[in-house]
Design brief:
By secondary structure, this protein is an all-alpha fold. Helix content is about 75%, strand content about 0%.
């Protein structure tokens, strides 16, 4: 039954998501799509630039369904960037590089989020602003890891499917083209049923743990360099 208590809980979750998760989502989506557009432009195609997608304005990249999935499931997508591979000197390499640019940017921001969280956690405080930035750094890391991984799934229209299309033999390409019209529905079913949750969460945890170990190693190098020699 829809009660006042249930409504208040939904309202609280919505406000929490907007305040804490919203900034991380905007960073993840904006830089993901900007990376696609920028690399495509670098490869010789001006389509994304003409479409206004070489922009750090989040409104140019948001997809409503993908945004909601990101807010509530931490896996989702943005509005695809249009590209024209015919303008690339090497179309096959161009498509692969442009497709991987978005997830690569997400993993970069994931590393930044892990590093920020590590630095902040080293100096604990009960200050409200401190706790906000600590939580935001955690979401910045986890959501970027989730978006990067999700887009590497080789199901159209995700980035991983474009990479797969370029490395498959001709028979495999034809098979992938046949299922392309139905692929979004398959993806939606996988999301709704939660079949992707376990493998994606495990991979996400692996990336976060790996980046944390790298941050600790880098921090260790700086602490050793700053330590005085023992007399």
């Amino acid at each position: 039954m829809f009660t006042v208590r249930y409504f208040n809980q939904l309202l609280y979750e919505l406000i929490y998501n907007i305040i804490y998760i919203g900034p991380a989502i905007l960073v993840a989506i904006t830089f993901h799509e900007y990376a696609h557009a920028a690399v495509s432009y670098k490869m010789g195609d001006t389509t994304a630039k003409t479409d206004g997608r070489m922009s750090l304005n989040p409104l140019r990249h948001l997809d409503l369904v993908g945004l909601l999935c990101l807010m509530f499931f931490h896996f989702g997508w943005a509005k695809p960037v249009r590209v024209n591979p015919r303008h690339y000197k090497n179309p096959k390499a161009g498509i692969i590089l442009v497709s991987l640019a978005g997830p690569a940017m997400n993993f970069l921001w994931c590393f930044v989020g892990v590093a920020l969280y590590y630095v902040l956690a080293k100096h604990p405080s009960e200050n409200v602003i401190y706790r906000y930035f600590l939580q935001t750094a955690a979401y910045l890391a986890s959501i970027n890891a989730g978006l990067g991984l999700f887009n590497l799934i080789p199901i159209p229209p995700l980035d991983g499917s474009n990479v797969l299309m370029e490395i498959l033999p001709e028979g495999g390409k034809r098979a992938l083209l046949k299922i392309r019209p139905y692929a979004p529905y398959l993806l939606l079913i996988l999301l709704i049923t939660g079949l992707l949750n376990v493998p994606l969460s495990a991979a996400q945890r692996g990336i976060l743990d790996t980046f944390l170990s790298w941050v600790k190693a880098i921090a260790g190098l700086f602490s050793k360099a700053a330590a005085p020699d023992v007399i």
